[in-house]
Amino acid sequence: MSLRPLIVNALSKHTATVIMLHGLGDSGAGWVSLAENWRRRNKFDEVKFIFPNAPSIPITINGGFVMPGWYDITSFSDLNAVHDETGIMKSRTLLTSLVESEISEHKIPSERIIIGGFSQGGAISLFTGLTIKQKLAGIFGLSCYLVLHDRVPEYVKEANKVNQATPFFIAHGDADQVCQYEWGVETARVIEKDLGHKVEFKTYPGLPHSAAMEEIDDLEKWITKCLDAKPTGQGEASAGPSGT
Questions:
Q1: Which among 19, 80, 131, 243 is placed 20 to 30 Å from 94, CA to CA?
Q2: What is the DSSP string of 11-24?
Q3: Can 242 be counted among the known catalytic residues?
Q4: Do residues 21 and 121 lie in contact, with contact meaning Cβ atoms separated by under 8 Å?
Q5: Is 56 a catalytic residue?
Q6: CB contact at 8 A, 159 and 110
Q7: Alpha carbon separation from 146 to 21, 33, 229 (Å, rounded)
Q8: Distance (Å, rounded) from C-alpha 121 to C-alpha 141?
Q9: pTM of the prediction?
Q10: What keywords are assigned to this protein (predicted)?
Q11: Is 12 an active-site residue?
Q12: In this structure, are residues 126 and 34 in contact, taking their beta carbons and an 8 Å threshold?
């Protein structure tokens, strides 16, 4: 499988970009229907959607089986388990490079770029959003959790908190048997209460480790609010190299 991202181009003048990362074992193609659904309903015509593909790597928790993954996982029993920092940082660099490409090559202000993802992809998006050096329009995570929790304050400090006022959307099903619902609750609490960010947290009763139409509808409303918001004036100043 090619690692080149799948792209759904804007139908009208391209003024904003949404980058969506898939979960473990999936691919960008698994989420293209998200954009296609909005296209059919004449939503976000000005938005380009980018669906990156994770590299195939051995996953310890799956017996070392090689599959698409943004980082290795050794345990799903403890939110505070040791995380694959090397893999996480590589994926953060990849996501950051996609943001920088939109800014430098396509002239999209950083404050018109939203990043997000599902499961592992959501975890990378939350971590990148907290630590990136560009001011974004929004950051979302579906059925995911915060990685490198003990290192996040350090990385946030390095990024000068440029996304302190950037809205976060975190959603989780309370029947999730893979990424525990309590992890989503704790992730939202840490980002909002400990790190001081604006978080919209949504719970979906009975939803397992998957997405639901109600959740996608809520995400649509949140993206609309993010892209309708007036820029703070920091976007151009924060559009330089990330240093990662």
A1: 80
A2: SSS--EEEEEE--T
A3: no
A4: yes
A5: no
A6: no
A7: 15, 26, 26
A8: 8
A9: 0.92
A10: Fatty acid metabolism, Hydrolase, Lipid metabolism, Serine esterase
A11: no
A12: no
